[in-house]
Amino acid sequence: MNGRGAMTWLFLVALLMIGAVPTVRAQRPASPMPPGNHIVARDGDVVLVQNDARIGIVRRRDAYVRVVFNAAERWLAILVDHATPAGRPDGVVDWTYHYKEVGGEWPFEARWEGAATIDDYSTIPSSGFSGLGITTAQGLVQVFGRDQGFRDRDAVAVLTYMGASGGGANHLGFDEAERWLIAQVRRTDGKMDLPGGSATSSLTFQPGLVSGVTGGITGGVSDSGVQVDRSGAVKVGGRVRPPKKILDVRPAVPEDAARAGVRGIVIIEVTIDVDGTVKDARLLRSIPMLDAAALDAVRQWRFEPTVIDGRALPVIMTVTVQFL
User: Fold this and answer.
1) In degrees rounded to 5, what are phi and psi of residue 310?
2) CA distance linking residue 300 with residue 307, whole number of Å
3) Is this prediction's pTM over 0.85?
4) Closest Cα partner for 281 from 316, 314, 241?
5) What would the pLDDT profile of 136-162 be if each residue is shown by its tens digit?
6) What is the average per-residue pLDDT within 75-87?
7) In the chain, how many domains are there?
8) Taking the C-alpha atoms of 228, 234, 239 and 241 in order, what is their torsion angle to the nearest 10 degrees?
9) Do the Cβ atoms of 229 and 235 come closer than 8 Å?
10) Looking at the structure, do residues 143 and 267 belong to the same domain, yes or no?
11) Which of 52, 72, 98, 253 is most buried by a 10 A CB count?
């Protein structure tokens, strides 16, 4: 190497040392969740997450579910009645989800309902709401935002969304909760009111974002914030809690239904009188071979009276009758 070449080489080395010639480092793509063990947690278990370990969380619950899919407006509404510790839903909506700008197709009827298992997907470190899985007798449907780390190759359908919200339905029945939820889906101001004027919180989910929202609705409520039917009966929701059942009568499966193997859940709206007896009962979801037995059982149920501001009032609520 001649003297001029040596000087040029030394000059380049000096520039690198002081940072005048930047070095370029290859950007490593974000790696997917590494494979690991599937652990079924039990009540009372403690899960220790060390350092920056990445953990997938699936919160699984059995439920009775109603799904409304509007392909033209590209939204999906889901109403969930979680099973009680005894394994039975109570006919009251415990949680709702709605999704906007939905990509993909809901694979079943546009308005579908039935028994299902609900999986809420999330991760540690938290990435917010990661998605939802609905397992029905016809198969698994998954709904994701950007994060599809829980995607199951055996799913019968995978839907995507650009915005979503979820929250409690304040103990409304399915029909009333559906009307309220669809109104929220079609709002254009980005807010989510809560049914019954309750202060119960709900969550708004955007891919990678979780934030709390509050609100209230008006109409069909008394001065004390209680929803009142035209007949003067109050509706479960807000301050009105579902009355406690003190006499339960199980339905007898009709012989013709038993021979035909007919099973399922009949949903009934009941009006409970001031003395706790069932004053009226009407079918909301019918199974013709089981309806009469379901109504006969429900009309024998007894409840604790519903007292609002020191006064016993009739109350309207939705109940389910299961034939297993």
Assistant:
1) 80, 5
2) 21
3) no
4) 316
5) 988 999 999 877 888 998 999 999 988
6) 84
7) 2
8) -150
9) yes
10) no
11) 98
